[in-house]
User: Fold these one by one.
Assistant:
Number 1:
Amino acid sequence: MGLIVQKYGGTSVRDAERVMNVANRIVEAYDAGNNVVVAVSAQGDTTDNLIEKAMEINSNASKREMDVLLSTGEQISISLLAMAIEKIGRPVISLTGWQAGFKTDAAYSNARIDRIDTERLQNEIDKRRIVIVAGFQGINKYGDITTLGRGGSDTSAVALAAALNADICEIYTDVDGVYTADPRIVKNAKKLDDISYDEMLELASLGANVLHNRSVEMAKKYHVKLAVKSSLNKVEGTLVKEVNKVEKMLVRGVTRDNDVARISLCGVEDTPGKAFTVFSLISKENIGVDLILQSIGNNGKKDISFTVKESDLDRVIEILEENKEIINAQEIKFAKDVSKVSIVGAGMVNNAGVATKMFEALYNAHININMIATSEIKISVLVPRKDAERAVVAIHDKFMLA
Amino acid sequence: MGLIVQKYGGTSVRDAERVMNVANRIVEAYDAGNNVVVAVSAQGDTTDNLIEKAMEINSNASKREMDVLLSTGEQISISLLAMAIEKIGRPVISLTGWQAGFKTDAAYSNARIDRIDTERLQNEIDKRRIVIVAGFQGINKYGDITTLGRGGSDTSAVALAAALNADICEIYTDVDGVYTADPRIVKNAKKLDDISYDEMLELASLGANVLHNRSVEMAKKYHVKLAVKSSLNKVEGTLVKEVNKVEKMLVRGVTRDNDVARISLCGVEDTPGKAFTVFSLISKENIGVDLILQSIGNNGKKDISFTVKESDLDRVIEILEENKEIINAQEIKFAKDVSKVSIVGAGMVNNAGVATKMFEALYNAHININMIATSEIKISVLVPRKDAERAVVAIHDKFMLA
């Protein structure tokens, strides 16, 4: 008998039929003798519908009131899921974020979990009840409802697993697990049986769309064993855990990210601290800068290129315009028709041949590389968006990941 | 400068436009220098839609989980209304039932308010914020969400007014106020400027459908001055308050209630306690018995007739069937095609002529009276349902209420 934390996303509970399916799966784990705590998201389109309701009234509503509104989505899910389990005839109780003891900071719409007061949770578990917890939400020190922002329900689940010292945290989603590449792009992409936290972190931030980074970071920090599984079938998923053995496969996966735009500041004065000035202006607005390329100075001038999320581009252009005297560039260029393609693998840092092999794959496919960035466990290249899918396939084939 | 508590029902906030209207009305009171606390119901069909969602999954869900589900309806309303007030540009904050300090007993789906811990409310008022509170809901000693049952939002508003010692509690609804009769039946029905708590209680319980009884009882107990107003126009409503002056008008209103069924136990043994036995069987199931008529015994047998809500009839018949040996009646008869028509007025107890005048009106209209019941401030008669509207008009005319 162990303690299992499960997490089900919005598509997994989008209608009555899916809710009953999820209920059956939870009861299966419970009937096998486990204690089960479940974090659940809002049903299907609920959150979007609520946002639409708000927009009709005030497109600039405070984040506090948006959180009061949006948190109802998960509250609806938990009660319906609890009712489904009641129907099967097992003891169950639903808890909202504040009932489950999720204490967060005060950053409405993007709060961080400070701690979970587990007294109520533990009481319910001790009564051998299945506990259904609203993901994505908590309460701050003012007694106000907060939401955790994107990927919040994954984070809720991992936080529950950490606080309750669970044996495993199972994240149920609409894919079977973590693949070597997006199966929609690469036909022979292969599911990974396991992957390390660091590799998963890189994959998540590179657009693998399976687990949100915050949840993986937290899992790593608190040594929570994660399993990514499909809520639609019984296929074994992917385990995310500390992997210590030497990996047979250097490269674990190939990803593509289209939410990227490139900005080039051409003919900037080549004085110390110029790049710092630019990036500090941008980071002040909480906008993340990703790949950065700085040309070698020439006649006292240099070029600085970098990428941001495409959705941040307009704001970045504004910032650069507002500060053009300080930046003093000859020309500012930007491009949206680019994608970031990356390979990830814990082993690659010790193997110089990996980068060469990646570039060779792209060269053979006649794909131009705009920018390159490397870290300990990943190599990213910026390529024209029209070539991005071909690039993923070419790299996947080259490394024979399938 | 005073403190006003306002209450808006579901139809008053059913869409974005109505929410903006309500927001404007609240701001008007606020800008006049008042502190304003608002209790609001779930939007239009929200509650019905939520119930439907539950029914698809489990038609026999626990009341606890139903309350978790249904309480989201008001939480949606409060956030949207707060956003509308933010848009107008006034300081505002929304509070759920538990945030507003509504402490209730543990009777899920029909909880009673034990007290309101007003600390948070008072803090927000002191900051000159408009406070929007979710009606219909609270929290019990286990930290679980409860709902107050039918008419709950009215009760929430009156409880707020009592706890905060408000100058007035304004109940906004879709009618202008309290009328001498239902304006849909009696064309020349007249709006009352004021009415006493007791008269309002009788009118409410007799089907006037303006205010729920629980809220009027609470208003009477805590001396809360109530105003019933329309949320759709600016017409002066009806004040409900302690009326001490001798009333000019003996009869304040005529009401009709179709949710009534008559049951007759014919040929019951005329022994002491027989009626008590019957009614205790029924009251054990929490079913209210209204008019009671007991014939004078004859040959050791008597007839007992009484009325219940039509919706309770099937259950009452079951109870009588299950206990027919104990009751030992020669025949049990029941009728659904009846209505209760009543006149209400604080002055009538001292004036014997009122009843005579009422019966005369019905006699002249050729309407048969089945049963009669009187209290200090009302006289009710049971008439055939087909004649009920004519009865209301005839009585209204006779007393020249218009």
Number 2:
Amino acid sequence: MIVVMSPNATKENLQNVVKKLESMNLRTHLSTGDERTIVGVIGDKKIIANLEMEMMAGVEKTVRITEKYKLVSRDFHPQDTIIDVDGVQIGGKEIIVMAGPCAVENLEQLREAASAVKKAGAKILRGGAYKPRTSPYDFQGLGEEGLKLLRQVADEFDMKVVTEVVDREDIQLMENYADILQVGARNMQNFQMLKALGKSTKPIMLKRGLSATISEWLNAAEYIMTGGNENVMFCERGIRTYETFTRNTLDLSAVAAVKELSHLPIVVDPSHGTGRRPMVAPMARAAIAAGADALMIEVHPHPEIALSDGNQSLTPDDFQKLMANLGEIAKAVGKTI
Amino acid sequence: MIVVMSPNATKENLQNVVKKLESMNLRTHLSTGDERTIVGVIGDKKIIANLEMEMMAGVEKTVRITEKYKLVSRDFHPQDTIIDVDGVQIGGKEIIVMAGPCAVENLEQLREAASAVKKAGAKILRGGAYKPRTSPYDFQGLGEEGLKLLRQVADEFDMKVVTEVVDREDIQLMENYADILQVGARNMQNFQMLKALGKSTKPIMLKRGLSATISEWLNAAEYIMTGGNENVMFCERGIRTYETFTRNTLDLSAVAAVKELSHLPIVVDPSHGTGRRPMVAPMARAAIAAGADALMIEVHPHPEIALSDGNQSLTPDDFQKLMANLGEIAKAVGKTI
Amino acid sequence: MIVVMSPNATKENLQNVVKKLESMNLRTHLSTGDERTIVGVIGDKKIIANLEMEMMAGVEKTVRITEKYKLVSRDFHPQDTIIDVDGVQIGGKEIIVMAGPCAVENLEQLREAASAVKKAGAKILRGGAYKPRTSPYDFQGLGEEGLKLLRQVADEFDMKVVTEVVDREDIQLMENYADILQVGARNMQNFQMLKALGKSTKPIMLKRGLSATISEWLNAAEYIMTGGNENVMFCERGIRTYETFTRNTLDLSAVAAVKELSHLPIVVDPSHGTGRRPMVAPMARAAIAAGADALMIEVHPHPEIALSDGNQSLTPDDFQKLMANLGEIAKAVGKTI
Amino acid sequence: MIVVMSPNATKENLQNVVKKLESMNLRTHLSTGDERTIVGVIGDKKIIANLEMEMMAGVEKTVRITEKYKLVSRDFHPQDTIIDVDGVQIGGKEIIVMAGPCAVENLEQLREAASAVKKAGAKILRGGAYKPRTSPYDFQGLGEEGLKLLRQVADEFDMKVVTEVVDREDIQLMENYADILQVGARNMQNFQMLKALGKSTKPIMLKRGLSATISEWLNAAEYIMTGGNENVMFCERGIRTYETFTRNTLDLSAVAAVKELSHLPIVVDPSHGTGRRPMVAPMARAAIAAGADALMIEVHPHPEIALSDGNQSLTPDDFQKLMANLGEIAKAVGKTI
């Protein structure tokens, strides 16, 4: 940490700052400029992490040098992590596609969707059994019944299941049905849930919060990893900006950022990221080109009667066409699909 | 709802749209312009709320006319709601001040803070026992021990207690100690927790999410009210924008917006809203002038050693000066403090 | 400036950094921690301002300590600046109100508006003769004819004129008619125009850009002041955020920020800041409570037929009521109106 | 346009609304629901464009159905526009790369940069002669001397020149040296300059404003096209969001949006879009995959001594490697480079 003294700080102000830091067993280095003095602070990171110096007389501001997360950081783990989801590898040479309806509605819908996406190349079936919805009057999902349908249909088509957990009470139940537990954008900083997922035996897919910084996102993953669960993958799903043409602004630079800062895999969700069917395919292609390890795409056999997010769902036909096209992009970045 | 047909929609497209709407027992009105036809949709609001028409051939877009929330809406409840917190009225003529440290640290700190803020005129003691923190390595709060200290000190100084609930598991426990349960910004759309709070006997203070729209915020309150708990107050605490000089951007226009759209009271938190000590007083004054019913302000006896948010905490002295000044502003808008 | 070396920087990397800095006649101070070394850089500010060190091998990042603006800074000019607009003082004890229609439409409209706002207490007449409009098909203003009307009507009612300049070519012409030249949000970083206004003899009102940081805004004012024109006032008019209920998000904390960082006066425009008529009055009150020196408010005799921004314009009646109410707020913060 | 009456509008309110609309030669269609009436407005678009109905008694809100731009719209011009820049085609099968230093500094720097980027495959040389800088104390560019160097070096290497115009006064001068005139983000809504560029004989590259919506951006292009200049290309260069890890948030979904709404070509600038050297290559790949027609990339022979934006400039080596890799991506989307 660096403490910047204000131009009119007194000698005594400076002495007090140094005294306080030294009393906490921290070392200091002073740089005295024409206008102000800067104090470099060195020592135990946990102590520094909790320092609050800006209230002291004469202090103008402080600058934090290091991020707090460790286990998610590439500094501490230079090689890419590959997560094994019961035989499906996420983070390696092969780009994995997760696809299916936004919400599980009934057996027929799910089977139709699964059949189509499996045939086109998807390995993981997505579908919400518990749906976080803005209004209490919107469809909230089928609950455990939805989980059962997901498991049954995934097994039928030899697929894995990813589905969202919205309450830490449900984790154990969900582990019976799902292969990957998804944390939704609204729960990215539901720290009690993150801590509980740290004890789960299942891989976690952590979606980025609507207005979460890259740093907050990585710190949220750190909550899971400090609990002991090392199988965390990120999922970029668009951030909230002033733009209203798209539902969210898909931040593909986050893919490059996560790859630089962390060893964990990253998934991209162009369906929520754009909210508009015609944009899903170009953004899926761009995600792979940017370095994403996996895609998550909404496909509904009959989007016009979907109970949620019909506007952004691909038809099985659209999806089939998209998949046929992704192989070339994958090849261009040295991967397969 | 209004369905806007695209300029190149066929007659058949239009017939299919009308047929679908009528099959759901909705009525339609057509406006035919030179370039496109617009379909007005009339009927049962719950059916309309779940309509997804944009996937149908020939549909360009749809426009929703009415918000989904009802119980929180001023349309359904024109008079201001006054919430009685065990004798302290929030939402009436008197502006109520909640004050205290960000986190409860120990008995001495809390007693010192409570003594000072009570003397200056605060009626409700604030303090976090469970702290949602960005990093797992930051101080997470004293837990139940903190709740006990809050209750003990509040009773000693004849104050009420407001404190944050971070997990729906804790609600029952917290009801034993607190008078108002606070939902933090990160949990504003933790819908399972909101539903559980709908069953609580305590008033709820619902902070606005970091990037929540006014509409999402009101819908979140609707989750609590549909559960049966009518004592909900809002708390504006700053939204996330591109500006970095302040910790958040305090949106005081949200006060006027909530007053227009809802009958529920609104609190303003200029401490988190700005994150900078010198800004707390001017923003507290502005909040009252804008029509806020209550203020929530961080006060720490020794901000320079606070375990969290020291940079934005007032000293007891600062707070005393601020309170002395607020009376005139309150009077100017026809209130007392 | 502080240069933070990366944990795996070599000794040679560090030597090269120091050598480069010293070759530019800058002094360095090293703080060596367990993981990384930090280099404090001291010396001529203009040289430091142009330093780009992040490309050098071993450098992780750099942190700038000081802002580049000087003339606008309160550090260099501790007392508040009061701007004299031909006898009307902005920045002193009296809160000045600027009011009038968004666009000048014709003599009758302007005279009706001026008569009403003058009677209610406004001292400065606002009105656009050149209108920056999103679409080329929108009304673009009356041009010089509008300027003439403004001057004629202002003189008739003994008022001053503020109006927007949209092109540096127009500055000389506008000086013949206006008392304050306004720079609109879209031109806040039209640096050629700012430089030209630095040579103007008229006071400048610099509106904040739609997504300008406080720092960029102050730097824009520095462009004007370095040209020799010391009479610059800021105008907060709302920033662009994700919220769509209001036209913009009025950032009243910017008032406190500008007061802390600069000696120049600040005006608040609650009309553009909210874009909604019922919000103008509460936000005008809040602006004064936050410390604003002046207000700018749109008033149109017949908002329902206004050629622009009718939705946010007050009627003369609304305005009269608002003004009657502002005196008490002004008094509460030690001012008059 | 649709006018939504409020639930408590009177019959008279409704009659007045209809009367006003009919007095302007507009036709109306009424849809009467249980709670409110909706008025569809049909007729001359220019009249509708200027309607302001929200001030009328009983009106709750209005909803605009159609965008105002026409010439830029794909509705009016379904085929892709290809812009011929003196033999280099932008918008066709071949992806064009523009590269060079942020600012022109001297002959040697520019020649070194041009030689490298030409060899790697760039066809257009970029470089700023007039630099819009946040602070008046930053390097402002070489002016006409810079233009001369650009022309000389481009001719030497058989390249075209793109450079930024910051003042409408300079347009004629710049036409003597440049092949494409760039409008920077800060001037995207400098409408006087846009109008003047509508009279230029040179193609225009219109960068997206820092917080411009897609709609505002297309309307800005409409300003140029209504002047008679049909050779307009867009350039996405990142928008301003709350994220600070990157300089801006590169919005690649804007590429798909522009392709959907307009027939004009779109360029992507991953250098300004990210502000971080390691992100330029992945974002350049992603831009092509998303459908971009061209790329603009900063390359500096010695980024560590660049007078501006060194942190985001590639070295000639980096650039060479990137270009070698882009061919495969281009092929995957049916293009060449």
Number 3:
Amino acid sequence: MSQVRIDWKVLEDFTKKIFVEMGMRPEDAETEARVLVWANLRGIDSHGVLRVPQYLASVQKGGMNPDPDIQVLRETPAVIFVDGDHAFGPVVTTFTMERVMEKAGEVGIGWGLIRNTTHQGAMGYYALLAAEKGMAGIALVSNPPNMAPYGAKARGIHNSPIAISVPAKEHRPLVLDMATSVAAGGKVDLAVDKGVSIPEGWALDVEGNPTTDPEEAAILLPFGAYKGSNLAIMFACLSNIMAGNPLVAPTLAGQEVRPGTQNSVVAAVDIGTFSDLEMFKENVDDLVDGIKGLPKAEDFDEILMPGELEDRVHEERAEEGIPLPEGTVQNLREVAEKLGVEVPEGL
Amino acid sequence: MSQVRIDWKVLEDFTKKIFVEMGMRPEDAETEARVLVWANLRGIDSHGVLRVPQYLASVQKGGMNPDPDIQVLRETPAVIFVDGDHAFGPVVTTFTMERVMEKAGEVGIGWGLIRNTTHQGAMGYYALLAAEKGMAGIALVSNPPNMAPYGAKARGIHNSPIAISVPAKEHRPLVLDMATSVAAGGKVDLAVDKGVSIPEGWALDVEGNPTTDPEEAAILLPFGAYKGSNLAIMFACLSNIMAGNPLVAPTLAGQEVRPGTQNSVVAAVDIGTFSDLEMFKENVDDLVDGIKGLPKAEDFDEILMPGELEDRVHEERAEEGIPLPEGTVQNLREVAEKLGVEVPEGL
């Protein structure tokens, strides 16, 4: 399979220019590009620049709004409720996370609810923002259905991801970032771009039959059977229904939902309110070292921490460049051509 | 397998008397009995009165404290940090959840961190307390290790459960309550009491080899491979390490940890701060109806909501009595005899 390697800064700059041409303010375009390329840097290619053509299509269909009027609907010392006006997810989510962290600094926790955001990229990004400020970060999101609830053979819930991050001392911050499906939808898209099949158990086709063809995959399957399914249902309640924007039931009832709409929760817990921050970080290091030192299961050489694999990829790709499969490159070139953005050398 | 059926009120009263004889204040004994029998009513027998002999043993070893001095260590308008002084879990957790719900009523969210609690029973109980007050409830807990992290064949993390509950209108509140292991540890204990084997994939023996003998089961296995494992690691950070009481790494390093110690987070999000509560409840009903109406997967007659199975058992057992296996009955009789508590008729 053919691919190219591109410097992350070049890719970020190119991606930013594309977003500016889509109608975004330069600072918003920068945020958006940063979040996507961060995902690529960490090997989460399913949430990286491969999304750009989808975003352009969404803007053109009246889904994602490149020039949003973000509103704070309600605010207390501990919570904030924001309407994103269908902003690109990273724009409104970064805005909200910053406010949430301020609140956590004041009263120990900040809890942000975002209505009418659109695709936010990798949720781990926002959780990590908190960890980098000495806080625990939590982020989750729910969309219209793309996953079969346990026991169903049709779409009925979103494969809501959740991210949680905490700082460590010598180790990198821990960053859990997982979908409630067996595999994130973007991983299916990536298989399409790569022209490879997907494992059994990831998805059903539109008729509800199991498939390993990513082009046929229409319905994701929950991880851990009823456990992943039930987590996704509760996350839909905490985000969509809490925000008065239920998405799932209206879609199932055949009502029109603005394409790309999603609702999200971001939260930060201030560690210093409860414990000494340095002691916390040392204790996370000890936890990591303790677990990594355990006897290994058969076929395992090491035990990985949440985000550890991504940290290694990050280091390697920051140095060596980000590999993009030919399908993704071709799509990006087409977008650039449509928008009159020059394609950088090497892409 | 022989079993008896006992009226839940009789069982609760008997259990309360046992706890009073263990040295608990009557109101605390009542709380403790209520939480355990609630689990039995809902069919979560692994977290019900089968625990009573373990609790007595723990009190005698200096683990659980029947007469605790519960302290509020820190408090803001949004958070509370409580030291449970090794109280029986339901006593300190109910106390903290009440305070957390007051805060949520004021500022939209309340976040409670509990240090030095002991076994809390079924975590769904506390999440449901919030749902019954028009709030979303969240509860999680972490203990010393009893589960193999993904990639390990030894204990290295606790199979932390998480519970989330929200109210509905015509439907019962949704109550997710799940361990991050394939099966909760109490389910292994229950298999011992019932004299049955456990399914493959639940547990390893003390050497790290797979076992289906509940008497040999020493190490639980995470659900969803690395996903359940990583959730458990993050929950340990949010509870144990946040509370300055890390438990896991010290245990792995061979240090003494007071038996039965655990740390917990309970939180409530006030729905009315964000949305109209009645609309929220109607939207939860619509979500439930939408999902339950989906085409069923092969071998499924219906799609169950979080807590729905338990609601049905609750209704049946409230009417017909709680079935207890012979092993559990025998253990309860022995405890009653030791403490001089009269065994009620029918047990």
